[in-house]
Each structure stands twice: as C-alpha cells, then as structure tokens.
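Weekly modeling sync, notes
Attendees: S.R. (lead), two postdocs, one rotation student

Agenda item 3: backlog of single-chain predictions. S.R. asked that every request posted to the team notebook include the full sequence so nobody has to chase files. The rotation student volunteered to paste the first one in as an example of the format we agreed on. Action items at the bottom.

Example entry:
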Amino acid sequence: MFKVFFLIFDPGATWEKVAQKKRGLFFILLTYLVPMILLIAAAEGWSIHTFGKWQPRFGIYKHFTLPEIKAFETTQAVALLALVFLAALLLHVAGNTFHGKRSYRQSFAVVAYGFSPLLLVRLLDVAPQMNPWASWAFGIGMVIWILYQGIPRVLEPDPTHTFGIYLTAIIIMVLTSGVARIFATMYLQGEVSNRHSWFIEWLAKYF
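Predicted structure, as returned to the notebook:
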C-alpha cells in the first residue's frame, strides 16, 4: 500500500519494478487496491460522522448517521473497484487497437497503480469544508504525472504509439473517475437522498 508514495516521488524506478515483478491481478487487488479503498472508507466515514460535511446548498454541516455511512461507503467501495476493472478493460481494448498485443493483467496493473494517488488524496476529504472537486483535481493531476512513466514500462508499446496510448489512458481515467466523483459529491452535498433508493435502504438495513 505504501507503493503509492514511491510512485509519486520516484515513478520511473517504481514502475520499472512493477513491470519486472509482473504481479497477478488478484495479488494487486488484495494486497494493494482493496486495503487503500478500505482505509479511505474508514477515514471518510469517521469524518462525516464526527465533523459532518459542508452542504453549501443548505448552509449546514450535515452529520451522517452510522447506517447512512455504512451504506454510502459500501456502495462507494464497490463502485471504485468496478471503476478500476472497467477502466482496465477500456484501456486493454483501446490499447490493442494499436500495434502489439497486451494482456488484461498489464492494463489492470497500470490502472490500479495509476489510480492510487487519486485514492490517496481523498484523505484530504476528511476536512469537512474540503471541496470534493479540489481533491479530485489534485489527485487526477498526479495520476496524469505518474502514468507518463508507467505506460511505456508496463504496457511496452511501440515507441511511435506510446503517446497515443498515454492520451487514451488519461481520457479513460479522467472520465471514469469523474463520473464516480459526481455521484459521491452529489450525495455528500445533499443533492440526492438515500430515502428514495431501495438499494441504499437495503444496504443500511443489512450492513
């Protein structure tokens, strides 16, 4: 899980190690991605229960109940995992339109490790007045920075196609993470209510 700091401060050498070790999908998922998501969920859940979240539309700090927090964080964790798998699939399909064949494992490694700075900076959201889009913009900026080092090392594209795959990866990750951020922000800022969602009510009841 601490690899995210090495990716930020020494991306070239860290991506080189990722490419050499060729870790499997489930290894990356269980030892890196899931622990980060659980850490974020715990920190954010504690924050919105203890301090609340500023809702500018109503001019209040909304304190969420434990059932609301469990339902929201469970939904968000599942959505983040689905987002990584989807983004990896899109990158895999798009990348193979260029010359050369790349495995889904390679695309998953790029996306899972590439998204980690975005996940890390979400710890800034524990501040009740933090604008969710400010932390997202900061995080996605770091994602774009480290992907530049990761694409050529992990996907190993032809040099003439490297920049095209890099731009494709950026578009995919910006769009997928942006859509996820929209729904999370709308909920935290009171734009949607779990009272009208059978899925959220079911989660709150049983989890």
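Discussion: group reviewed the output briefly. Residues 13 and 191 are 43 Å apart (CA to CA).
Action items: rotation student to repeat for the remaining queue; S.R. to check formatting next week.
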